[in-house]
Amino acid sequence: MQPVRMVDLQGRHLQAADATEALILDVLRSGRWVGGPVVEEAERAATEVFGRRHAVGVASGTDALALALQVVGIGPGARVAVPALTFFATAGAVCAIGAVPVLVDVDERCLLDAAALGAIPRPDAVVPVHLFGNACHARLPGVPTVDDAAQAAGCPTPGGAVTATSTYPTKVWSGAGDGGFVLSDDAELARRARHLGNHGLAGEHVHTSASGHVGRNSRLDPVSAAMLLGQRTTLAARADRRRAIAARYDAGLPAGMVALERDPGNTAPVYCLLTPERDAVRERLARAGVESAVYYPRPLHAQQALEGRAEVHATPMADRLSGELLALPVHAGVDDRAVERVLGALQW
Ligand SMILES: Cc1ncc(COP(=O)(O)O)c(C=O)c1O
């Protein structure tokens, strides 16, 4: 029997293969292999998907976070509050610009906890992560916010000064490789992000002079932009299918397992349940040919790379959730029979 996979990128591509491949071929034949109209069009699409006025295509979600932090004035030594349970890159981006990640506990939905955030010495910036597509509203008055919406394409999320997102292939709206966007309603912040991601150069061309800021090379490439435009055409239909799968899982979970609560507008980019028997349940699923995933098995304070580099606060909820969260397959390639197979394998 075919395994039920966590992701099916080939299947996703096939849903929009003709349109996507034609766009990619145009890019290859145009000889415009950096920037150009396809990237601009993908940036326009990103403003729609994320509901922000301006979008700047960059080379990864991690770069989007680092550039977003820089444009709100964060640099070496600044303290940046991040949730203690998230993908490593949320903290990695903070370290990459010489700032210090301040690890703050999460709430029962694995979102940065507003009360815990209010209880720590005031940070210089806050990064609420809209994990699993749920909107995180934790912020602090007068402190710049950079929203991490890497997992929230197509999900309503509040936008602070700047939003960063990833178009890594496993995201529901992805490119052909790494990529991301810096998004903002503020044209000046968006302009600064574009400038820093283009070597800090004053103009578009390589030999114009750097204008006072040392930037780097972080640009969305046109092949990925073409892929994003192709996938845009199936984004809504795929979201509908994921919602239907998630609703069926919610209704069919056995006693002892609970679905992680989702916002009404959440399109289930990731489906998570909570069970204290997580590792045993995973093994049972694997024996039945059902893939699953753990987002995330270790809170950030348990990541060796952050030892001595992060400011750590009490994280009892992050510690608990990292042992109980389990993600099930929820992409549009999971048909009704596969959904029932997953539910069947969850029963003791
Ligand atoms: C919550 C979160 N933040 C940041 C990132 C980093 O994005 P990228 O892998 O594109 O650098 C990811 C995904 O990979 C993510 O899930």
Give the helix/strand layout:
Elements: H1 9-15, H2 17-30, H3 37-50, E1 54-58, H4 61-71, E2 79-83, H5 88-96, E3 100-104, H6 114-118, E4 125-126, E5 146-148, E6 162-166, E7 180-184, H7 187-196, H8 222-232, H9 235-252, E8 258-259, E9 271-274, H10 278-287, E10 311-312, H11 316-324, E11 325-328, H12 336-346
Parallel strand pairs: 2-3, 2-4, 3-10, 5-6
Antiparallel strand pairs: 1-7, 6-7, 8-9, 9-11
Bound molecules: pyridoxal-5'-phosphate (PLP).
Pyridoxal-5'-phosphate is lined by residues 60-62, 86-87, 89-90, 129, 148, 150-151, 166, 168, 178, 180.
Report on the architecture of this protein:
By secondary structure, the protein is an alpha/beta fold. The protein has two domains: 9-232, Aspartate Aminotransferase, domain 2; 235-346, Aspartate Aminotransferase, domain 1 (Alpha-Beta Complex). Helices cover 37% and strands 12% of the residues. It is built from twelve helices and eleven strands. The chain has helices spanning 9-15, 17-30, 37-50, 61-71, 88-96, 114-118, 187-196, 222-232, 235-252, 278-287, 316-324, 336-346, and strands at residues 54-58, 79-83, 100-104, 125-126, 146-148, 162-166, 180-184, 258-259, 271-274, 311-312, 325-328. It has a four-stranded mixed beta sheet, with helices on both faces. Strands 4-2-3-10 form a four-stranded parallel beta sheet, covered by helices on one side. A three-stranded antiparallel beta sheet has the order 8-9-11. Helix 3 crosses helix 8 (222-232) and helix 4 (61-71) crosses helix 5. The protein is globular, with a radius of gyration of 20 Å. The structure holds pyridoxal-5'-phosphate. Residues 60-62, 86-87, 89-90, 129, 148, 150-151, 166, 168, 178, 180 line the site of pyridoxal-5'-phosphate (PLP).
